[in-house]
Queue: 2 jobs
Job 1
Amino acid sequence: MKPNTYLIGESAVMIRIRALIHRVAPTALPILLQGPTGSGKEIAAKEIHLVSQRSGAFVQFNASGLAESIAESELFGHVRGAFTGAYIAAPGLLATAHQGTVLIDEIADLSPAIQAKLLRALDSKEVRAVGATHTKHYDFRSIAAANKNLRQLVDIGTFREDLYHRLNGITIYMPPLREHREDIPVLVEHFQTRILAEDHICKTIRPSAISELQRYEWPGNIRQLYQTLRRTCILTEAAAIDAAHIREALATDDADITTRDTTPKEILLAALTEYNGNVNAVAKHFSVHISTIYRRMRDIGVSSRNTTRTTNKRNDNEPARSSRANFAYSGENSRET
Ligand SMILES: Nc1ncnc2c1ncn2[C@@H]1O[C@H](COP(=O)(O)OP(=O)(O)OP(=O)(O)O)[C@@H](O)[C@H]1O
Ligand SMILES: [Mg+2]
């Protein structure tokens, strides 16, 4: 039996998100889900499909780490003999989502060629399988999700602007858990049920444990809350979990996610500083042409000279961990788009 909701939370922000989903889900508007890792983008996409009452399937595609040819055949399908090993034809996920919903997750990781092909498919709802001579029409609702800020990727030239506008009928921003800590008690209750169903473990969670959970920053957001609670319930001998158990679990939790909020100028400045003003290295870091970085520097009034570091000198080609993390998790700016 289908649940009547997936998204748990009674905070003002979650009520607003649920109301927005109820307004837009029954329409054909493409939806872009933004927000940091573990904040509930995938579960929000499932909720949208549920509320939409579309008769077809909910289909998920994850672009991260896929070779271009695999991404293409997964999304668009292929005909028999399209490539070595294609012994039988296979429908793509867009076709499988006919009359349903397709979630294109980690969309920022799509290659430029697939971005172009996807734009055509979204514009016309006509899908050309790999090796096919004709297109076929499918009626699917698209939801795109990314924890990288897509607008910023458009600004630095790694994501197509036309595709961004096509996907972004509306952006729904899933906030970091630290911005709705008041949902932690209901989330904990929900996860207790899940832990009972999946792990056959039932523990009492004391109010002191809840207060401890509400004090934490949660860089890994709701996913981290669930994993922490699950681990604590499994590893604790006692029948009840209190603050000390939570403190112990969090002390060993090694999530290293940066959740600073940044503007495009700060991101570019941070990267230039990390690479000691080496524009070539920054271009490599963002996988864009060096001229794109120079253009952005000119547009926003940044010079590489005043980003040269005097201390803590590092190898220019060493990845700038902190600036990449900021780049990846600065979804905050997308809130108003
Ligand atoms: N509002 C919520 N109510 C109940 N469970 C939630 C909620 N938000 C997230 N979760 C749970 O937290 C976990 C992470 O959620 P989800 O996969 O939707 O995050 P995400 O934003 O897609 O993360 P990522 O960017 O890493 O893919 C899942 O187990 C999901 O069920
Ligand atoms: Mg996800």
Job 2
Amino acid sequence: MPQPQRPQRGPQGRQGGGSRGGPRRRRRQFDDDNKTPLMWVPKTQLGRLVKSGEITTMSDALKTGLPLREAEIVDILLPDVVDEVIDVKMVQRMTDSGRRVRFVITVAVGNSDGFVGLGQSKGKEVGMSIKRAIENAKINIIEIRRGCGSWECRCGTPHTVPFQVTGKSGSVEVTFKPAPRGIGLATGDVAKKILKLAGVADCWGFTEGKTKTVVNYAKSVFNALMKNAEMRITESEITKLGILKGSIAMAPPASVAASAPPAPPAGTPQPSEG
Ligand SMILES: [Zn+2]
């Protein structure tokens, strides 16, 4: 009698189990939960505006000032958004009936191009809590301001934070300053992950307090980015600070900008004479 064929499990397991470490693409995962954008029935005003196609960009959605309560809005408007688990903490508590284990999950999301969110969730199961933390990160999404930001640089692409901001959470305080192109993220690892998701390529970071407390570090980074997003700025300051719209993806690669300083236009007298 031939045995019924079972699906082979490779040594690396099936997709899904795998590592939770790196950013995961979410582009084509609508079908997982039967929530294709077509089947989604929005429950909020902003959700209905997005579903009906009246709002087509995340910037416009945030500008309405309407509460963002449905993660599907982000799935539709930012299909390139990825998530990264920043921290998994196990919390044990003794109760009458024995030991209770819960997980506190902190997740960051971003499209690596100006949009970033941070979310948390608690629960008995890791997988379910991660899923809810991702949803929370999505509904917390903000649009940050980026620019060239530095008179040392003048490359004219939105690669850094355009002005200094400080964020705080618990004992941790973090300050970000504009950096010229090619510097990279001169920050701690947690800040690096979140800034990357936000689409900041170059930045100086300064921290105070217990940055080993990953959750507080992540929250202080996000608080700083919220200040970046919410700062009141006049039209003239936009020009002065070098705040730029548009995508860093359209900019020349960092290696080019870093290795070759902008060439003077042809016919410009060289400064060597003076
Ligand atoms: Zn620049």
